[in-house]
Amino acid sequence: MLPNGAGGVPPVVHKYGGSSLASLGQVRAVAERVAAVYGSGQPVAVVVSARGDTTDRLLGLAQSVGAEAGGRETDQLLATGESASAALLAMALHHIGVPAVSLAGAQTGILATGAHGRGVIVAVDTETINEVLSRGAVAVVAGFQGLTDRRDVITLGRGGSDTTAVAVAAELGAARCEIYTDVDGVFTADPRILPSASILPVVDVGVMAEMSFAGAKVMHARAVELAALRGVDIHVRHSVRTGPGTVIAAREETKSDMLESRTTVTGVVLDSDVARVNLRFDAGDVDAAADVFAFLAQESLPVDMAALSDESTGVSIGITVHTDDVKPLSDFLTRRSGPPGRPLECDANITKLSLVGTGLLSRSDSTARLLTCLKSAAITPSSVSASQMRISVTVPDDDAVRAAQVLHDEFGLAQLDAAPGCTTPVPA
Fold first, then answer.
1. How many Cβ atoms are within 10 Å of 29's Cβ, its own excluded?
2. Among the four 178, 255, 276, 427, which has the fewest Cβ within 10 Å?
3. What's a GO biological-process term for it (predicted)?
4. DSSP 273
5. pTM for the complete prediction?
6. 55 a known binding residue?
7. Per DSSP, what are the bridge partners of residue 303?
8. Is 121 in a helix, a strand, or coil?
9. Residue 53 sits in a domain of what CATH number?
């Protein structure tokens, strides 16, 4: 890693999501914001996502010619979305008198490995970025992509630009990575679903990682985990409005500012893009669980709420997975069991509902309160898992929002103070 910017000063690192760059007016507004920081004398590196619905449109084009998702050529195509955003923002900066250089593909110095469409960053060579900064220009980096050891472009999967931004901030020695998006910060629940949700000024990075893995869309789990590992604070703010946003605290000096009296429960998270899968194997198939989880690891498929049952009638493995991951899992099961293959039992009409916080098992009433509230609202969960930082249940899709509201009220997370309790169930 070379010295950062002019005089070795660590740069400011911004990241702008696709919704913040969707129109040309928004691109110009982002350029003005970056120019203001640049004008203060600080070196600036900016990571960008593809504009608006560009990624979806490119995926549609790939599918229209019969391309398989996750292949090499699909990654080549998808990466052009972020590359175009980077070039366009650099041009907008030039127009207002700010020197800028867009970097994409091999120019970014981001090295990654893994399957196409699911790449994982292994290193960031910041030589080119630092060279741009040392010349007094803004480095505009295309997110979501890296280069394999075979020099193929590989995309980083969901939330890849967030991960790119945190990785770049860490390697450049920045204490904070600023994520600009279309929400005001991190809330106790999705405010588009629960209007009573309140914004969280500061969230511990470990709690945020759990919220992200549980389905909170504001930040991707891998980006938050990387921030925790490298000690980089993340500041989530609206790309247009001027509110304080939320600081995701990873550095010890930032965490020390958090009040010890914060409530045990931080937020309620819904994830409707999941399915509950049951895999059944013959009795005595001692390799079943190891083979399944080895496959999931090999394909970088995240799994949650795992349950294993080994009885005389057979081996049963229950897991919650992303809906996109059901097919590859089914294909694996067919290959392993041989034709015609053992069928996979799948319930896609469920939502994962998670209560996230700290010390949830230490306070033994947390799970009991959750289940009692759902019972009072006539909502029956189909599976439950609990840890110190997260309690998750799966509930029918039709009951998910009502269940989230019940728990949000029970654990006192609403903007307006209200006495907790489940005496009045939310109407169906």
1. 17
2. 427
3. homoserine biosynthetic process
4. S
5. 0.85
6. yes
7. 321
8. strand
9. 3.40.1160.10
Whether 339 shows a pLDDT value over 70: the answer reads no
- 283 and 254 in a single domain? The answer is no
Average pLDDT over residues 114-124: 91
16 is in an annotated binding site: yes
Q: Is 15 annotated as a binding residue?
A: yes
- In a domain? residue 272: no
- The structural domain count of the chain equals 2
Q: Is 367 assigned a ligand-binding role in the annotation?
A: no
With a cut of 50, say whether residue 420 has pLDDT above it: no
Q: In which band, very low, low, confident or very high, does the pLDDT at 340 lie, cut at 50, 70 and 90?
A: low
Claim to verify: residue 111 and residue 230 sit in the same structural domain: yes
177 contacts 234 by C-beta, under 8 angstroms: yes
Same domain, 192 and 281: no
Is 393 a domain residue? no
In which domain, by residue range, is 141 found? 6-258
Residue with tokens 């920081």: 37
Mean pLDDT of 186-198: 93
What tens digit of pLDDT does each residue of 300-325 get? Answer: 889 999 998 877 778 889 999 999 99
181 annotated as a binding-site residue: yes
Q: What value does the mean pLDDT of the chain take?
A: 89
Whether residue 143 is annotated as binding a ligand: the answer is no
CATH code of residue 283: 3.30.2130.10
Q: Which residues, in sequence order, are CB contacts of 146 under 8 Å at separation 6+?
A: 108, 110, 111, 112, 119, 121, 153, 154, 156, 164
